[in-house]
Specification:
This protein has a single domain (2-117, 147-160), classed as Alpha-Beta Complex (Spore Coat Polysaccharide Biosynthesis Protein SpsA, Chain A). The protein is α/β, with parallel strands linked by helices. Strands 1, 4, 5, 6, 7, 8, 9 and 10 form an eight-stranded mixed beta sheet that branches. The protein has a two-stranded antiparallel ribbon with strand order 2-3. The radius of gyration is 15 Å and the shape is globular. β8 (137-139) and β9 form a beta hairpin. The chain contains seven helices and ten strands. InterPro entries: MobA-like_NTP_Trfase, Nucleotide-diphossugar_trans.
Length: 184
């Protein structure tokens, strides 16, 4: 399975001069941590979805880039998925997950049983960790939050729920970055 790192957003909530994917957590740019985790996993090829919003990130990356318009997560994902180089199903990973490693990504791949699959975490887990939980919704009677890790395909809509800190901590704010650094 191919993998796509989404790293073309504006990152306005992080409130820093550096582009969000290049923001350092534990001294290493978050996007480098994500690419390294993918390299440790069972994915076949890694691509980066870049945009005009993050030119320094595009220049920094050592993986093939798929240029997207920078119009938001869904629009950029759709643009990247239309690129002939990327096959589906594809593992998609946000660049703001600095705790990822190959083992948790391989667990996601093993949980995938065809079609699309969202990786979710209990919203209470994010609150317990002290990280932002701006987007939550109900699924099967439980409040959950997206993690930024998904398997995208043309059919299906499955979910995998985990409270694993490696996917529960997205860095959207400076406070989130401080929490992430505690787990490195």
């Amino acid at each position: 399975m191919d993998a796509l790192v989404l790293c073309g957003g504006r990152g306005t909530r992080l409130d820093t001069a550096v582009e969000k994917p290049l923001f350092r957590v534990g001294g290493v740019p978050m996007v480098d941590r994500v690419v390294a985790a993918l390299a440790e996993s069972g994915v076949e090829e890694v691509y980066a979805a870049t945009s005009p919003n993050a030119p320094a990130t595009s220049a920094h990356l050592d993986v093939p880039a798929i240029e997207t318009p920078g119009d938001g997560y869904v629009a950029d994902l759709d643009a990247a998925l239309s690129d002939d180089r990327l096959s589906t199903p594809a593992l998609t990973v946000a660049a703001d997950l600095p705790l990822l490693d190959g083992e948790i990504l391989d667990r996601v791949l093993a949980a995938h049983d065809g079609g699309s699959m969202s990786v979710l975490t209990p919203a209470a887990r994010k609150r317990d960790l002290g990280v932002s939980d701006d987007t939550t919704f109900e699924r099967d009677g439980r409040e959950v939050a997206p993690t930024g890790v998904n398997v995208v395909d043309e059919t299906g809509e499955d979910a995998w729920l985990t409270d694993d800190v490696r996917v529960a901590v997205n860095v959207n704010t400076l406070a989130d970055a401080r929490v992430a650094e505690q787990f490195l």
